[in-house]
Amino acid sequence: MRKQTNCGRKGTALLLSGGGARAAYQVGVLKALTHSMPRTAPLPFRIITGTSAGAINSVALACWASCAHLALRKLDTVWGQFHTSHVYRSDFAHVFGHIIRNVLSSFRSGHANHAPASLFNNSPLRRLLAEVLPMERIDRNIHRGVIDALGITASNYSTGDSITFFQSKDATPWQRSKRQGVKARIHLEHLMASSAIPVVFPSVRIRHQYYGDGSIHQMSPLSSAIHLGAERIFVIGVEQPKEEHRKYAPHYPGMSAIAGHLLDSVFADTIHADLERVERINRTVGLLSAKHKHQELKHIDTFCINPSHNFNEISSLYYDDMPLAIRMLLRGIGVKRYSESSLPSYLLFEKRYTEHLIELGYQDGVKNLKELRHFLCLD
């Protein structure tokens, strides 16, 4: 890791990607970092950005940013005690009743005001977030200078744009091709919109337009942090280690396998591509003399941690922890304990699975701790 040219918290950003239940991994990585810090130290990030489940973690961190240990203790408590019923209705009556209502509503007139269609009803998540996140603290922490900005990204289904709702004292809105930053006071609807996994959870209405999971149209995940003033970005992703692909496939991929591939590309592939893009820009900036450097180009340091173990293999260990109604529904589309689909790794909001991911994140964080502390100028 090269020596930092501008150390200190200013310009240091955290980016948390999406991934449903996989976001428990992020908590473990951050626990490893905070355990190496003084007990009263604030978070070492002035800019916090997140998408989907990563947006929920980001807001929690922004709420308790003045004390890193407290922030991680709050996150660890929630993720370490998870049950599916905390996120979406998982009993037989609600699971299959919800599907039947969606089917029946499809026969209504196109002019009728339909309820948003989805595989699951995630109203329990709304109640949980309202209970555990004191979002009024975000504004307080920004005005006290504990953090500079918080950005939450969602996808606008009406326009196809990636929208980052941000809360900041100094940052200004931005507009780029298919993406923009909108200044707002972050509230519950932004979180529900950002975490509305397509098809799985219902879309959310904000100011007469409909939004869904922020990872869908997010072609440049690092962009929002850079627009909010980042010079160094620590990324915690959920991209699994690459498996060796078989040259011969004995059968067509099933619906469940294809659905899993779609979610993998939505949540993981764009981060890797954007990190490569930043590295190319950094090399270009390095070749330019001071007088020829473009005003909008600047060197951005990045540090990324991704899981060292396969989430699909881990989720198969806890497949039976999912409620019976969910297992039956998934089995109906071909998702079994050892199927090729990665769907269970996103939907398995159960304590033993999330605890396993937190521990994996912690171990990966410890392995990278020396380099990470150097990157964040904590040494």
How would you summarize this macromolecular structure in one to three sentences?
The protein is an alpha/beta fold and 379 residues long.
DSSP helix fraction: 40-55%
DSSP summary: helix tally = 14
Distance between the termini: 13 Å
Gyration radius, rounded: 21 Å
User: What portion of the residues fall into strands of 2 or more residues?
Assistant: 5-15%
Major sheet size, sense and barrel closure: 10 strands, mixed
The run of helices and strands is: EHEHHHHHEEEEHEEHEHEHHHHH
Mean pLDDT: 85
The secondary-structure class comes to alpha/beta
Assign an overall shape. globular
Number of beta strands:
10
Low-confidence parts, pLDDT < 50 over ≥5 residues? 1-5, 244-248
Question: What do these coordinates show?
Answer:
With 379 residues, the protein is of the alpha/beta class. It is 41% helix and 13% strand. The protein has 14 helices and 10 strands. It has helices spanning 24-34, 53-63, 68-79, 92-105, 123-132, 136-143, 188-194, 223-227, 255-287, 311-317, 324-332, 343-347, 351-367, 369-375; strands at 12-16, 47-51, 149-156, 162-168, 174-176, 179-183, 204-206, 209-213, 232-236, 301-305. Strands 1, 2, 3, 4, 5, 6, 7, 8, 9 and 10 form a 10-stranded mixed sheet that branches. Residues 1-5 and 244-248 have low confidence and may be disordered.
